[in-house]
Amino acid sequence: MRKFCGPDEIIASQPIDELRAALHSETGIRVTAGNAEVVETAETILIGVKPTVVLPVLAELAVQLGGKLVISLAAGIRLSSMEPLASARFMRVMTNTPSAIGRGATAFAPGTRTTMEDIAQVKKIFSAIGVAVQVNEEHIDAVTALAGSGPAFVYTVIEALAEGGRKTGLLPEVALTLATQTVLGASQLAAESNLSPEELRLTVITPGGTTAAGLAAMEKHGTSSGLIAAVEAAAARGREMAGG
Predict the structure, then answer these.
(1) Of 7, 104, 158, 182, which is least packed with CB atoms within 10 Å of its CB?
(2) What global pTM score does this model have?
(3) What is the pLDDT of residues 184-203, one digit of tens each?
(4) What is the CATH number of domain 150-243?
(5) Which fold has domain 7-137?
(6) Residues contacting 7, CB < 8 A, separation 6+
(7) pLDDT class for 244, splitting at 50, 70, 90?
(8) pLDDT digit string (tens) for 88-114?
(9) Residues near 86 by Cβ (< 8 Å), separated by ≥ 6?
């Protein structure tokens, strides 16, 4: 994980006393009970509240947010809904839980007042915790489905692989260890190789062999179709949330 800034350069608000104390104890960052203090202190503001709370929070802090870079991490809240509330430079960002270990997949979308400096700043921030790419806002729902929800789909794959190993005789803990490492290694190879997933798959397959038999079973049970449908369903739900 690449270091972007020190804890003394970060301030966060948390209204619950116990959580606020724990946050400071675990990270060393400055904490406060009020959003206003954060906005008055920082020039780059990350909005990390539930989607239903985003617009009320922005309306409450509209004056203090003027001229600042505001990054919304909420799904379903459009730039067109945020920008009329304050004269800030708004951007939307969607990341995922592997960012906690520096392996995040993040996409960001500029707003109408976003500057090139803002784009560089956001890319620098989120590249420190993984990969960050720029997209148009119309694609954020797809990013939410693929990167935001995607880890849950991958965990389901790991779980299924491990269960397959258990059913063929492995101890549960051995099967889970091997399944997890297999997914990790295959993902890393896909990221570092110049080969496409299809080309990489072909390096494993021997005609008439075990891999070919397994892939035929996956095709029969619609594994690929199910994963594609999962991303499409998650994206559709994201659009519904935005419309609501």
Answers:
(1) 7
(2) 0.87
(3) 999 999 999 999 999 999 99
(4) 1.10.3730.10
(5) Rossmann fold (3.40.50)
(6) 27, 28, 29, 30
(7) low
(8) 999 999 999 999 999 999 999 999 999
(9) 58, 61, 62, 63, 65, 66, 70
